[in-house]
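Researcher: Final request for today, and then I'll write up notes for the group meeting. The sequence and the SMILES for S-adenosylmethionine follow.
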Amino acid sequence: MAPMRRRRRPGFQSSQAKDLVREKYDLPLVEAVARRKNSPIRYFGLPGVQALDLRSWGHLCEYVAAVEVFPDQFQQLKHQLRTQFGTLEHRAHLGDVDEVILRNGGRNSQWTFVSTTFREDVGFIWDFDVVYLDYYGKFLPYNRGGTGVQKRARALRHLFASDRQNAWQPWLLVLTVESRLFGPQDRSQMRQFLTVSKEQADEETGTIIDYLLSEAGTATEQAARLVHGTLSYIIAVAASNSDVSISPRPTVLYRGGSNTPMLHFAYEMSPSSLLSGYNSILPLLRSPFLSVRDDHAEPWFQLLPSQPPGQTESALRATLDFLDERQINQIV
Ligand SMILES: C[S@@+](CC[C@H](N)C(=O)[O-])C[C@H]1O[C@@H](n2cnc3c(N)ncnc32)[C@H](O)[C@@H]1O
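Model: Predicted protein-S-adenosylmethionine complex:
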């Protein structure tokens, strides 16, 4: 009998829409961080075996921390980094990215630290200008032994902990997850979370939550609204005791590899001791929904017909202002 071949998990597959999001949406935001910093950036991300993100903005980076959870892909990623990005200072870390974020920091000597900046008073601090978490799968990973959800929320919260953060620097957080509901539990958990949040919310916020809970539109749009609402709360709460103010960018729906419906979020953080502890949930909940056009032609993005209520045109324009001028004019 022929020996059994070990099955390998296929590496990440990009799509035309993902390439557009990376080039037309993410790249201008990453460039803006480098411009504001006025020097090369420190990047924390999940490049995958092809490292397409580093092909787009590796030239803007001075240091890259790359995380990968699958061992065979980790080996390929390491090889890719060594052979294709030899001049870029980098380190690859094997493990679940939420755990890697949670373990990093302070003085714990058990781990290889992801950040490389050491401060006498607190130990290693989180020194990344761009945190690019293009996760696989669902937003809230319930099926990983029950602790996955807390871990994800805790990891996001950890990014904002001001004792470990370079709080005087602007930074960018990008997240990608699938725009799908994974069974009734996934749906009911997010609905319940938003329903409870509404009980404590003012009228304006309550109106947006009603919109996010509504069952209009396709299943992808319904999932997008629930994830958008839940993530907005996690981010606003995570940032509530940090010295940053948050500018959300539009939520983008697109088709990833294998035609999977995906969601893309970006938040720009600016240092603000004045606003410390105060990050209103409203701008996050209200940030608009875009989709990548099916024909992948210019203007690449379009506003979804249904949008969170209460957004003024000037606020909408401000949220879109990093996009190419031609697109904004055609979108708004
Ligand atoms: C979407 S792909 C990377 C795409 C790339 N950044 C780009 O711009 O095209 C995500 C990579 O991270 C890995 N990954 C996904 N979720 C992860 C997690 N929770 N922890 C660690 N690695 C993860 C996947 O195996 C995959 O190789």
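Model: The chain has a mean pLDDT of 88. The chain has one domain: 16-331.
Researcher: Thanks, that's everything.
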